[in-house]
Structures are given as C-alpha cells and as structure tokens.
Specification:
Layout: E1 17-23, E2 27-32, E3 42-43, H1 50-59, H2 79-96, E4 101-106, E5 116-123, E6 126-133, H3 134-137, E7 144-148, H4 157-166, E8 171-180, E9 189-194, E10 199-203, E11 217-219
Parallel strand pairs: 4-7, 8-11
Antiparallel strand pairs: 1-2, 2-3, 4-5, 5-6, 8-9, 9-10
Length: 220
C-alpha cells in the first residue's frame, strides 16, 4: 500500500516513476523514467493542483498510457503538431537566410535515418541543424541541395536554438571599407568587410540595412 503522496512503481516495467510538469503551474503527469508510461494529463483547477491528481491517477492505474507517440498531447498540442510547427517555422528562417542554408539526404559519413533528411543553417556561432521526414518536408525547404551534409560541429539541440535566437539581434559593424573603381561602363562600388566575416559590394548610394549573412542591422 502507498500513501497519497507516494508513486507506485511502473506496472509495465517496474521502473521508478516521477512527476513531470508540462506547463509551469498548470499541468503535468506521472511518468516512468524507464519506459515512458504515463498517467493522463492532469491540470490545476478549482478542485486542486495537478500533482495529487497525477499521483492518484497513476496509483489507481487509471488510463495509463504505455507508449508515447506523435498523438501524445501536453494538454494543448500533440507532438505531431509541434513537430510540424517547428518544420514550418524553420523553413521560414532558412528561406530568409537562403545563402547560409543547405539540405542533404545523407550525413557527411553517408548515413541517414530511414525516410529522413537533414537541413541546416550556418549561423555566425556555428551550425544549427534539424532532421525531418522526407515526405512532406523536403520540398518545403528552399535552399541549396547537397548529397552530403557538412561534418557535424558537435552542437547540441540547446546550442542550435541558442544560435538561431542570436541571428538578427544586435548590430554587425563595418570593420573595413574599400572604394573600388570598376572601370569602363561598370558602376563604382564600395566593398564592405563586416564584423561577422562577410564581405559585400554595394553601390555608393545603395542602402545596406541588414547583413545578408547574419541578418543583423549594419552600422556604417
């Protein structure tokens, strides 16, 4: 027997169970650390907090879910919905930084997960990459197509999202400026070397609002 605050072991694998909060101070579940079995999603309401509800649901074995899959919900969205949203949002980032992006059907060593591909963008801090299903996402990403992806630089999921978050924030400074006399009928241009390492050539009268490489506002 257990009291009302103690979680029983998992009925599927006898693994240790813990409480996992989905949305801070709103909802959560009891979940097995070993096999992922979980209780129904429990929410805070006028009858009490989600934690005692999750414990009670788990201990009475009420509607336990033995497998987490794409239809599993956090109480607001399923994993399939969130996966699709991430793909669409990243495709917009790739489209807006097309010159920095690529997609490949194989990793640099020739391997790939079944039915998937990898898409990445070279941020000023390094790679940010994600894997997606070939169908329907390959055509969604409008960028350079490669047979092999660049060698992985060791970035983690946390690194990837942090690098993406920094793109376009702050300023990119002109560190060197050179006047280029093109001669003949070609219009003279300025060559700007930017602090992110990118070089651009522009007409004297042409405004440069954002760096085409890092997306940051350019100071000149």
């Amino acid at each position: 027997m257990s009291d009302e605050t103690t979680l029983l072991s998992c009925p599927f694998c006898e693994g240790e169970t813990e409480l996992k909060e989905y949305k801070p101070n709103v909802s959560g579940v009891a979940i097995c650390k070993e096999c992922g079995a979980r209780s129904p999603i429990c929410k805070n309401d006028h009858t009490g907090g989600w934690r005692p509800k999750a414990i009670a649901a788990w201990n009475t074995r009420a509607e336990l879910v033995s497998e987490i899959n794409g239809d599993t919900s956090d109480g607001h969205h399923t994993f399939n919905e969130l996966y699709h949203h991430r793909a669409v949002l990243f495709s917009v980032i790739v489209r807006d930084h097309k010159e920095l992006a690529w997609k490949a059907s194989k990793h640099h060593d020739g391997t790939m997960y079944d039915g998937m591909f990898i898409v990445g963008i070279e941020t000023p801090k390094g790679q940010a990459t994600y894997h997606y299903d070939l169908d329907p996402y390959w055509e969604m990403f409008d960028c350079e197509e490669r047979e092999f992806a660049p060698e992985w630089d060791g970035h983690t999921p946390d690194d990837a999202i942090a690098r993406i978050a920094e793109m376009g924030s702050g300023t990119c400074e002109v560190v060197a400026q050179t006047w280029e006399d093109r001669g003949g009928d070609e219009e003279d241009t300025y060559k700007y070397e930017l602090s992110c390492g990118h070089t651009v050539r522009m007409l004297d009268c042409e405004p440069l609002y954002n760096c085409p490489r890092c997306g940051k506002a350019v100071e000149r």
